[in-house]
Amino acid sequence: MKVLVINSGSSSLKYQLIDTTNQAVLCKGNFEKIGESDSFYSHNDEVVKFACSNHGVAISRLFEIIPNASEIQAIGHRVVHGGEFFKGSAVATPENLAEVEKVTALAPLHNPANIAGIKECIARFPGVPNVMVFDTAFHSTMPKSAYLYALPLNDYNEHKIRRYGFHGTSHNFVAKKAVAELGRNIKDLKIITVHAGNGCSVAAIDGGVSVETSMGVTPLEGLVMGTRSGDIDPAIVEILCKAHNMSISQCVQYLNKKSGLLGLSNGKCSDMRDMMELSKTDDNAKTAIDCFVHRVTKYIGAYVAVMNGVDIIVFTGGIGSNNHYIRERVMSNFGYIGATIDKEANTKTNAKTGFADISAKDARTRTYVITTNEELEIAIETRQVLKNHS
Domain spanning 184-374: which CATH class is it, in words? Predict the structure, then answer.
């Protein structure tokens, strides 16, 4: 099946056309800075300046530049938030789209763009089925003890304030890949997956299902990220609002856009690659890296306790797949559970490797580096949903 995978961000749209019979990528690209004066797109690495006022315009051009667009058999969409209604992927029927729109307030930057992309595809190709694959769905298996916040229950019952988790497609993909490489049954294994990029999250996967994850009702909670603060004392919001004369909405933006590595480096950089270079001469950059490592270490340790052990630890994402220094520093804390690594193998491993076992030969707990492929996972999920739906 030829599946067009679309990932509509707040100001971007990424796409891949994938043949699921052999997992071949037939073409790929992305539209950037949608709604801005200097918008452009790249298609198979060719960059083209393009006036793109909204996601509808982007999708219209997308169907013009994709070769043999009439051969597309299905369209799979990444949708960030599915709330509690969606426990798995779903066909984009009017009823299901209405349910997605109900949780727009939980992902105001992402869900509107996701919905706009889906509606435009339905309008352009009314005979082609569209499937929604949710970031949150993989974590819908968490027990109440993991997803409830210690708030009055009415806040959950009436307003659905709870932990949802994100990066589910990535966590699911690398966990299955790890198990396939090990040649074991996923139901017999305890896995911790670390998705570390500009956005970062950790998941505890016991027997193939997510039982805990670091992101919360929004992607702001958890690890130190590129521009997101991760975990903070909630009372800090009031203190910041008074100190900077901000509204609550402005404070949330402050925590999302001006914090994390960017904040810890006094606004100098948010990219870990730049931070590593800066740390050679800048003590604040060194501290930012220390904070990042500490938070990842803390969450892995907590999830070992949650599952009463771990068999596999997986690193993925831009930082997780490429930064051997961060991996070595994090894993230096887990010798007590037999999760030691081969430093030489770790140094030689990056995203181009695809999969690497960086464990020491005698390690009881295996440590893998796996390049995530969310687009392929969405394509496979789309095919499976349509097979089940037929």
Answer: alpha beta
